[in-house]
UniProtKB/TrEMBL annotation, chain A:
Identification of the protein by name: Carbohydrate ABC transporter permease
GO BP of this protein: transmembrane transport
Domain ABC transmembrane type-1: 84-274
Residue ranges crossing the lipid bilayer per the database entry: 23-44, 88-107, 119-143, 155-175, 196-218, 253-274
Pfam families recorded: BPD_transp_1 (PF00528)
Entries under SUPFAM superfamilies matching the protein: MetI-like (SSF161098)
Organism from which the protein derives: Streptomyces phaeolivaceus
Keyword NAD applies: no
Alphabetized InterPro entries for the sequence: BP-dep_ABC_trans_perm, MetI-like, MetI-like_sf
Cross-referenced Gene3D superfamilies: MetI-like
TrEMBL record, chain B:
Transmembrane segments: 42-64, 107-128, 140-162, 194-217, 238-261, 298-320
Top-level taxon of origin: Bacteria
Ranges for domain ABC transmembrane type-1: 103-319
Gene Ontology BP annotations: transmembrane transport
Organism field: Streptomyces phaeolivaceus
Biological classification of the source: Bacteria, Bacillati, Actinomycetota, Actinomycetes, Kitasatosporales
Protein name, entry field: Sugar ABC transporter permease
Major localisation: membrane
Family recorded in the similarity comment: Belongs to the binding-protein-dependent transport system permease family.
Membrane topology, record value: Multi-pass membrane protein
Length: 289, 330
């Protein structure tokens, strides 16, 4: 699959006609669409199939009959709403703390020149780079010492390790895109620094804050390792819940795909709403340099 | 919050280059005001730094100290004090040939993931410039869907695609003339299983690369490409000498980020192998996890984690330099 797409863009020598060449590119594009989209399609296809059709050694590519029974089975495996509720609580708390604390910090590094600014930026970037897996052992010990092991508050604390640096850096990207002159004009008109920020910058920043929150929410919601390690079976979160379909007796694939669908669809839809803005925020200025 | 609101284009002057470097704090003349202005940013930063110190700083320090101690079950429960053992943990890890096998495997795995991700991502980004609008929309939908899929869901789905008995991949392959893959177990051997996991990682990572590079490609001046073409450059020449240099900062950023992420791959292997990766599947992350939580040697697990971070330090340095450059321009 890689060779086809790689060699494609280079062969633009045949300039026989714009329409004809476009057809080739479009076919290649459709191939990418099918390849990239297939796992998602196959998840949905299996989720709505009768469970016995799912274990047909020669599965049909198109749906033959549709059923919702996999979903009811999925909802009944262990408890579904408990883990989802816990994931919601943890993700929302993390995002609220992250956005409030992160915005103050982002403001400091993007709107003030002060000694030590560079050190702070380097520090915030650096901690983002430490792999979560490397941290799991000391984090586990820390929570153990604090009596926060197997508690939602403990999980919130650990999620801040990756949500907070991310929030600061992304919000910084959005803030630097708001011209400083706007604030200065407001201050000339008699606003204080704080009111200038609240009246001028804040409204312009709102969409960026929404995008950052949603993205942060998704990251927290999707986290697996800490959720697995730091919570016991009866306190598991949504991502860990998916593991319940695999038991000693094998895997129930059709209900598992229904469970996967339940988990993925809301997140993908949320993601769809903000991805354009996030790509802009994450790469702001990257090419201007 | 409505969809329209969140997806609305950024309301900023579009072609604004770097703002003039106005010294922001010298608006008031008096020294008193200046002093106050230095306190403000630190006050704004205080909550953030405080939280990071607790949740990140402390564990990081603990990671280092832990790797110089003896720390197992009895130390965890407080039956025995954690005594210092100097470099013994590192000596044990580095002296184990298994560790070096895992290091090589991890590097090969991460490198293939990064190369495939970047090459395929670049090819698709370039392709998207050539296709009709409706094809572009379709590809974008597929990419965003795979990008937004929780890793754990994606892993579960790939496990199903490559199931030995009922997986669609074996069934499709077997439709090819002369190929019989029915019942083939992709996870019977490490290299094949890791190839499937590479595919999963690349599938999940390509969308971010495509979308970021596409954003970058829109900033490549059309006049430059035209000029190069007039000077006789072919498609490859234009790409090599015009597009690539302009995209370089983004490419450096994406490559270093990918290296960091792909060296940290964990749930994909862990879940694919039902929580117990076989020796042939161990990467540095799962190896460290195994040492700590399966063998209950937290100190050696920490030493391995620390060695992984050290291994990454060079890459992290390149990434930071690039990001700082970007930060300075603004």
């Amino acid at each position: 699959m890689s060779t086809a797409t790689v060699s494609g863009p280079r062969n633009t020598t045949g300039r026989s006609g714009p329409r004809k060449s476009k057809l080739g590119w479009n076919l290649l594009g459709l191939f990418v669409f099918v390849t990239a989209g297939f796992p998602v399609y196959w998840m949905l296809n299996t989720a709505f199939k009768p469970a016995k059709d799912a274990i047909d050694p020669d599965p049909s590519l198109l749906p033959t009959s549709i059923t919702f029974s996999n979903f009811s089975r999925a909802l009944n495996i262990a408890d579904f709403w408990g883990p989802v509720g816990r994931s919601l609580i943890v993700s929302l708390t993390v995002v609220v703390i992250g956005i409030v604390v992160g915005m103050l910090a982002a403001l400091a590094i993007s709107r003030f020149a002060f000694r030590g600014r560079k050190v702070v930026i380097v520090g915030i970037l650096a901690v983002q780079m430490v792999p979560l897996v490397a941290m799991i052992i000391p984090v586990f010990l820390l929570l153990n010492d604090l009596g926060q092991y197997d508690r939602l508050s403990g999980l919130v604390l650990t999620y801040l390790t990756f949500i907070l640096p991310f929030t600061v850096w992304t919000l910084r990207g959005f803030i630097v895109n708001i011209p400083r002159e706007l604030e200065e004009a407001a201050m000339v008109d008699g606003c204080s620094r704080t009111t200038a920020f609240i009246r001028v910058v804040f409204p312009l920043l709102a969409p960026g804050m929404v995008a950052t929150s949603v993205y942060g929410f998704i990251q927290a919601w999707n986290e697996y390792l800490y959720a697995l390690m730091l919570m016991s079976q009866q306190n598991q979160t949504a991502t860990v819940w998916l593991g319940n379909f695999t038991t000693k007796h094998g895997t129930e694939y059709a209900p598992m795909m229904a469970g996967s669908t339940l988990m993925a669809v809301p997140i993908v839809v949320l993601f769809l709403l903000v991805q354009r803005k996030m790509a802009a925020g994450l790469t702001a200025g990257a090419v201007k340099g | 919050m409505s969809a329209a609101e969140t997806t609305a284009p950024v309301k900023v002057p579009p072609a604004r280059s770097a703002p003039p470097p106005t010294p922001p704090v010298v608006t008031g003349g008096s020294t008193k005001r200046l002093a106050g202005a230095t306190a403000v940013p630190w006050a704004l930063l205080a909550p953030c730094l405080l939280i990071l110190a607790v949740v990140l700083g402390y564990p990081l320090v603990r990671l280092v100290t832990l790797s110089f101690q003896e720390f197992g079950q009895s130390q965890l429960w407080g039956f025995k004090p954690a005594g210092s053992v100097g470099f013994a943990n590192f000596a044990a890890v580095l002296g184990d040939s298994e560790f070096w096998t895992v290091v090589v495997r991890t590097i090969v795995f991460a490198a293939s993931c990064v190369v495939f991700t970047m090459v395929i991502g670049m090819a698709i980004a370039l392709l998207l410039q050539k296709v009709s609008g409706w094809v572009k929309t379709l590809v974008n939908i597929a990419l965003v869907a795979s990008w937004g899929m929780p890793i754990i869901v994606a892993t579960t789905v790939f496990k199903w695609l490559f199931d030995s008995d009922y997986g669609i991949f074996n069934a499709l392959l077997s439709k090819l003339p002369g190929v019989d893959m029915i019942g083939h177990n992709w996870f019977a051997s490490g290299p094949e299983g890791l190839a499937v996991i590479t595919l999963l990682v690349v599938w999940g990572a390509v969308p971010f690369v495509v979308i970021t590079l596409s954003a970058g490609l829109t900033q490549v001046p059309k006049e430059l490409e035209e000029a190069a073409r007039l000077d006789g450059a072919g498609a490859w020449g234009v790409f090599r000498y015009v597009t690539l240099p302009i995209l370089k900062p983004i490419i450096v950023m994406l490559t270093t980020l990918s290296v960091i992420w792909d060296m940290g791959v964990f749930p994909q292997v862990f879940v694919m192998r039902n929580g117990h990766p076989e020796a042939e599947f161990q990467l540095l992350t799962t190896y460290s996890y195994d040492k700590a939580f399966v063998v209950n040697d937290y100190a050696q697990g920490s030493a391995i984690a620390l060695l992984t971070v050290l291994l990454l330090l060079g890459v992290i340095g390149v990434y930071m330099r690039q990001m700082l450059k970007i930060g300075e321009v603004e």
